[in-house]
Design brief:
alpha/beta; Nucleotidyltransferase, domain 5; 3 domains; 6-stranded mixed sheet; 12 helices; about 45% helix
């Protein structure tokens, strides 16, 4: 009688709390989780079930050394078990698997522009509308090379990352901060001539008895000689430029984020015409039940938060212990990082 195959070496006991198991399961199944993180989560989950090296290797298709490494790496670094480290992360709301980005504006008029734009949100002028204006350039009509696989129990929706480009379009939008309605047009390009056409569209859409305050970024087409001439011929228009590199101060960017997340990112379009039709329908639906955003932070609160952040990350030699007025301190902190 042939000898039975020797079982693989059983991993040391790995105990997970319910919360830890739920979080690892979410990482393993979530479609947007990085592949390396999803694999590590699966390894830890399988080890916690008491699987042997060979079982985990066979099921996940990884090397034995990989299983050993991710079962014990954290404990070797800190002298703590994985479950203890997980509880510490949870206690202090630390999420090392997530990353975010930021950008500090170094524009010389940063403070003045924040005060101007945010003041406009909190105290809009009478007999006027405040419109946050921008264009979302070069939205591609993407046609997937293979059919989308619909979600199933325990399995997220899956789609191939190979796609065919079917053309581009650029929606221009003016978001009304008072009621959330949007004035929009779709253009094939985003030059000065297209921006001027959009201003004419806004001029026709806003009642003649109201002034128009536009919040827009510093893109070159927003401040050309031709645009300045047009604005001079239409004195009811007033332009407020956001600080350089601070698109977060423009509310229309939040609205574009909704358009991207709810329509564009998951859509499949075989032509620009189909893409533009879907965008137009989405905007029409939005305007049937518009939702304005609530801007809560004042300019001083924003600048004070930024000043606190800068004092923590500024390189040595840029901080000052001298008592300075808050506004001056902010300027020095900004210059210190330039």
């Amino acid at each position: 009688m042939a000898d039975e195959p020797r079982p693989g070496r059983r991993m040391p006991d790995l105990v997970l709390s319910e919360a830890e198991r739920a979080e690892l399961t979410r990482w393993a199944r979530r479609a947007k989780t990085a592949q390396f993180l999803a694999l590590r989560a699966k390894i830890v989950l399988r080890c916690a079930e008491g699987g042997t090296n060979k079982e985990v290797v066979a099921e996940l298709g990884v090397a034995d050394a990989t299983v050993n490494r991710w079962h014990s790496r954290l404990a070797k670094r800190s002298g703590l078990s994985k479950s203890t480290v997980g509880r510490i992360w949870k206690r202090f709301d630390l999420k090392p698997h997530l990353q975010d980005s930021f950008k500090l504006s170094t524009g010389p008029q940063f403070v003045a522009k924040v005060v101007d734009v945010v003041g406009l949100y909190h105290h809009p002028p009478e007999k006027a509308v405040v419109l946050c204006v921008d264009e979302k350039t070069r939205i591609r009509a993407l046609d997937r090379s293979q059919p989308v696989l619909p979600m199933m129990p325990g399995m997220p929706e899956r789609r191939t990352h190979y796609y065919c480009r079917r053309g581009i379009t650029s929606p221009f939008a003016a978001f009304n901060t008072a009621d959330g309605t949007v004035i929009s047009v779709l253009q094939p390009r985003h030059r000065t001539i297209e921006f001027k056409k959009f201003l004419i569209r806004i001029d026709k859409a806003v009642p003649t008895g109201l002034d128009v305050h536009l919040v827009c970024d510093n893109y070159v087409t927003h401040n050309t000689a031709e645009i300045k001439t047009w604005l001079g011929e239409h004195p009811r228009f007033h332009v407020h430029f956001t600080p350089t590199g601070s698109s977060w101060t423009n509310q229309v960017e939040r609205w574009f984020g909704l358009l991207t997340g709810k329509l564009i990112r998951r859509a499949v379009h075989t032509s620009v015409t189909a893409l533009e039709k879907d965008i137009t329908a989405w905007i029409e639906t939005w305007n049937e039940n518009p939702k304005p955003f609530t801007w809560t932070k004042t300019a001083d609160e924003i600048l004070n938060s930024l000043a606190d952040c800068l004092t923590k990350i500024a390189p040595p030699g840029t901080r000052t212990n001298q008592p300075l007025p808050p506004r001056n301190f902010r300027r020095i902190a900004l210059v210190g990082l330039c």
